[in-house]
């Protein structure tokens, strides 16, 4: 017996040592693998700024705010009124600027914030709403968990959990013999394990080390590990781990683990802001998360909540008055939210950006907080505008309708703040589940006429420098047939309508998107000069110096095109587009921060001339239908249509917001759409739902701009004899001389008469 006992003792000691080591490694290291959290930017609201109240409310719903009919009394609640929104802003500690919980009243009048006041009616200069969670970047385990220290868990929640699960937690040594005997009696009587006497310590061990199997051997190992854990660590440390580990429900394929995540999901607020009734509801979930889910089984949830409240009263963890009041509290849950898969094209792009600095394991397991530049209201507006627009085209355009069964019409949208390069929205396709290909960043398409503004920008700069090929908006160009030989090939540019208008101004040529005069202008200027200007604005492609480049016949990505247009929107300042605002470790330590920088790329006055012409595109040019579609505002933009209508583009901007829309087929099939019929309606829809970003914006006029009246026929300064005159903008020093056609009508008549006389009498 002695010989047998020694090996058993040694084996037992080895087992204890192994368990001790296992527990120590877990508790001293990273207890959980935590997914990275991808956030939008916070939302800044100020009086006077346009706001879509419906979009604001939808954002609150997606963030899990609780919609109520009375005045909000706790963080995470809001009330919609005809004249605005009463809101109790939720606190948020991450990001560049922590947000403090506060109650405010937003008054909305005529689609703008008329006033912001605090709960005492005092005026508030501005408020920020927390960043919206866009997605979680998971590893092997799809668990949503927001780890918080025990010190931040309110006593009311701790007491509710103790009453519901282990009232003797602070008095036993890891296992509770009384609870074990009670459970054992029930299990023996049933002939199987139907009830557990598990303490919080045992549940912690089970959550960290075991599956859901119920066997005597597993219970034995669980008990041993619980005793060792209890002797190794303090009760508070064990409780802290338990409150962050416990499983409390399911959101699609994602498990909700820990009290903070559950509090945000079910009630739309942090645990610190829970009422007694809400704390008891969460504690009641532990026993049966699916059966007591307050979303799907509200009656059962209330019944279980009241059982927990009674237990708290019995254990002296809550007083009679508080319990009675809590039982009368109506169960109110959060508005739901959009889950953890918003803006999937954005998240893919963010992951590709982060891959340069962080491994897949770090992204999926270290709990990073990733803050983006995305405005979630603009993002939602872009997704919805694209979906509506493509569905309308498939229903209304015969050619597209006939092809619907064979291929799906696609599109993409990019929205930026041209002042900084911040990407406000990015939609890479109409359905991420159908196609993960990000057309906004990966597709290479011909921009068509959207490239033309860079030809005229180069020409306007040349005029300011006194160089060959220089133009002003009033310069007269020739819209008539011509051909040239390039690379051994004869090139004959033609206009979209197949017609030629003869002499017309550079302004009209760009506003009406005439191909032939633009091609002539590029040839006079030199294609290499056009390429140099385009590169300065932000194009990165290696353009071939071919004459067709002037008409956008070489491929670029939509993001590249948006970047170059950003230089036009910012009066010549080129900024690199960026989507990552910052990255923080799980403890809040800042790991990375965006540092956007702008460089002077092209002459501001020349850019302003282009912008002024592009404003005319929306009032009388190829995008004049924008007003009939509902657009109201001061914006500049350009339509683009490629050969055989394979691509339809519109890029439009104000100084504060730029939006690009592309529509087409992935396989380059003909669409029958122009930029005006395919992309422009989507752009208008988006702009009118995102006015908080640009409404009231105007184009600043730089020094060196001159406005004079010209004769539209000659393109020269109007004189008294000119039958027509229009105002035109010039860079100071490039304005033309007096109109040579009408400067002296009598002199021209005399010269004409004398010339004819000489023709009749040559001798």
Give a written overview of the molecule:
The chain has 763 residues and is α+β, with helices and mostly antiparallel strands. Strands 9-1-13-21-22 form a five-stranded mixed β-sheet. It has a five-stranded mixed β-sheet with strand order 3-4-5-6-7, with helices on one face. The N and C termini lie far apart (148 Å). The relative contact order is 0.09.
Keywords:
disordered C terminus, alpha+beta, 5-stranded mixed sheet, 763 residues, 28 strands
What percent of residues adopt helix (DSSP H or I)?
A: 25-40%
Task: Name the shape in a single word.
Answer: elongated
**Which sheet architecture does the biggest sheet show?**
5 strands, mixed
State the secondary-structure class.
alpha+beta
Strand runs, count: 28
Count of helical stretches:
24
Set down the secondary structure blueprint.
Blueprint: H1 2-28, E1 36-39, E2 43-45, H2 53-62, E3 66-67, E4 77-81, E5 84-89, E6 102-108, E7 113-118, E8 127-129, E9 133-137, E10 143-145, H3 155-165, H4 177-190, H5 200-209, H6 216-232, H7 235-245, E11 247-251, E12 254-257, H8 259-267, H9 276-285, H10 298-314, H11 320-328, H12 344-354, H13 360-365, E13 369-372, H14 376-396, H15 398-403, E14 410-417, E15 422-427, H16 452-464, E16 476-479, E17 484-486, E18 489-491, E19 502-505, H17 506-511, H18 515-525, H19 527-537, H20 558-569, E20 573-575, E21 580-584, E22 590-593, E23 598-600, H21 604-619, H22 626-629, E24 636-641, E25 647-653, E26 658-664, H23 675-688, E27 705-710, E28 726-731, H24 745-760
Helix pairs in contact: 1-6, 3-9, 3-10, 5-6, 5-7, 9-10, 10-11, 14-23, 16-18, 16-19, 16-21, 19-20
């Amino acid at each position: 017996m002695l010989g047998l006992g020694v090996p058993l003792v040694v084996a037992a000691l080895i087992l204890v040592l192994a368990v001790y080591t296992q527990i120590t490694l877990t508790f001293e290291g990273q207890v959980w693998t935590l997914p990275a959290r991808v956030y939008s930017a916070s939302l800044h609201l100020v009086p006077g700024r346009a706001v879509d109240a419906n979009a604001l409310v939808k954002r609150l719903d997606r963030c899990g705010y609780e919609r109520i009919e009375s005045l909000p009394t706790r963080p995470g609640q809001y009330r919609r009124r005809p004249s605005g929104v009463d809101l109790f802003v939720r606190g948020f500690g991450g990001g560049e600027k922590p947000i403090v919980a506060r109650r405010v009243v937003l008054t909305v009048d005529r689609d703008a914030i008329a006033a912001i006041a605090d709960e005492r009616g005092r005026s508030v200069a501005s408020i920020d709403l927390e960043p919206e969670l866009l997605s979680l970047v998971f590893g092997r385990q799809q668990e949503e968990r927001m780890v918080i220290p025990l010190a931040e868990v309110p006593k009311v929640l701790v007491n509710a959990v103790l009453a519901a699960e282990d009232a003797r937690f602070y008095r036993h040594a890891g296992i509770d013999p009384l609870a074990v005997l009670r459970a054992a009696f029930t299990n023996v009587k049933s002939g199987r394990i139907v009830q557990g006497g598990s303490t919080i310590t045992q549940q912690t061990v089970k959550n960290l080390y075991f599956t859901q199997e119920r066997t005597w051997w597993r219970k034995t190992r669980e008990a041993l590990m619980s005793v060792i854990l209890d002797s190794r660590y303090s009760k508070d440390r064990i409780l802290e781990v338990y409150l962050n580990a416990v499983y409390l429900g399911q959101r699609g394929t994602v498990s909700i683990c820990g009290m903070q995540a559950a509090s945000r999901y079910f009630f739309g607020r942090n645990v610190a802001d829970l009422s007694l009734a809400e704390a008891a509801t969460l504690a009641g979930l532990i026993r049966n998360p699916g059966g007591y889910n307050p979303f799907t089984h509200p009656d059962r949830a209330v019944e279980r909540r009241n059982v927990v409240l009674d237990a708290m009263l019995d254990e002296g963890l809550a007083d009679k008055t508080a319990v009675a009041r809590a039982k009368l509290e109506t169960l109110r849950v959060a508005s739901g939210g959009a889950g953890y898969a918003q803006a999937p094209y954005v998240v893919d792009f963010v992951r590709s950006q982060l891959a340069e600095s962080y491994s897949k394991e770090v992204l999926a397991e270290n709990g990073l907080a990733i803050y983006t530049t995305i405005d979630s209201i603009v993002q939602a507006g872009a997704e919805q505008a694209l979906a509506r627009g493509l569905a309308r085209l498939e229903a209304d355009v015969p050619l597209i309708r006939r092809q619907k069964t064979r291929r799906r019409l696609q599109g993409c949208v990019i929205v930026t703040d041209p002042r900084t390069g911040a990407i406000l929205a990015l939609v890479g396709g109409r359905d991420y589940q159908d196609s993960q290909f990000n057309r906004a960043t990966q597709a290479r398409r011909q921009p068509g006429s959207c490239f033309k503004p860079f030809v005229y920008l180069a020409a306007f700069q040349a005029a300011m420098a006194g160089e060959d090929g220089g133009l002003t908006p009033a310069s007269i160009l020739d819209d008539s047939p011509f051909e040239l030989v390039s690379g051994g090939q004869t090139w004959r540019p033609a206009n979209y309508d197949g017609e030629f208008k003869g002499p017309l101004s550079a302004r009209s040529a760009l506003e009406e998107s005439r191909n032939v005069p633009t091609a002539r202008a590029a040839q006079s200027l030199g294609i290499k000069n056009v390429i140099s200007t385009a590169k300065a604005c932000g194009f990165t492609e290696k353009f071939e110096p071919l004459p067709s480049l002037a008409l956008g016949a070489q491929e670029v990505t939509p993001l590249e095109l948006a970047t170059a247009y950003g230089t036009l929107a910012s009066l010549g300042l080129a900024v690199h587009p960026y989507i990552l605002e910052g990255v923080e470790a799980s403890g809040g330590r800042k790991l990375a921060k965006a540092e956007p920088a702008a460089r002077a790329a092209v002459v501001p006055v020349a850019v302003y001339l282009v912008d002024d012409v592009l404003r005319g595109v929306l009032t009388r040019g190829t995008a004049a239908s924008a007003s009939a579609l509902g657009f109201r505002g001061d914006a500049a933009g350009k339509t683009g249509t490629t050969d055989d209508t394979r691509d339809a583009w519109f890029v439009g901007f104000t100084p504060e917001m730029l939006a690009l829309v592309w529509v087409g087929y992935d396989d380059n099939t003909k669409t029958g759409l122009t930029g005006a019929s395919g992309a422009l309606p989507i752009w208008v829809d988006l702009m009118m739902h995102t006015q908080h970003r640009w409404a009231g914006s105007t184009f600043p006029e730089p020094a060196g701009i001159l406005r004079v009246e010209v004769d539209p026929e000659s393109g020269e300064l109007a004189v008294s004899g000119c039958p027509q005159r229009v105002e035109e903008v010039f860079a100071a020093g490039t304005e033309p001389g007096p109109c040579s056609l009408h400067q002296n009508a009598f002199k021209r008549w005399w010269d004409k008469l004398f010339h004819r006389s000489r023709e009749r009498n040559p001798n």
